[in-house]
Amino acid sequence: MPGEGRLTHAAVDRILALLDGTAGHDIDLAVDGLSLRAEGRAAAPSRSVAAVEPVAAFPAPLPSGPQAVLAPRAGGITLPAGLVPGRAVSADTDIATIGPEGAGELVRAGVAGTVTDLFVADGDLVEYGQPLVRLTPAA
């Protein structure tokens, strides 16, 4: 049978939809011969990218010292090639993508500066709020 043994886009969508509805519960899934066990934890609050206020809307200025960029959600992380300590970034530089390929959420630096530390590696699974990189803001 064509596609047998291959994980299809529809199967991944079905698995993700089932996982989204299981916060705090353990589940066992079997889809097209693939078995998956997920141990539930309370999910991080989901938020729409459009709902995030721009930095300029914050009442207090951002601190001038090193700042950690945090994961806006849990998931697998993809880092761009060349993201290494010492690299200069602008506020809108993409420093990571979290989530499935083609549907992941871009994580931007948020401040111009220099990458000081990397706390994750390409392909790692990260948790909501986990530090990804540390940036030293430009003077």
TrEMBL record:
Please give the Gene3D superfamilies that the UniProt record associates with this protein.
2.40.50.100
Question: So which domain of life are we looking at?
Answer: Bacteria
Q: Which SUPFAM superfamilies match?
A: Single hybrid motif
Record-linked InterPro entries: Single_hybrid_motif
Name of protein: Biotin/lipoyl-binding protein
Q: Which organism is it from?
A: Azospirillum oleiclasticum
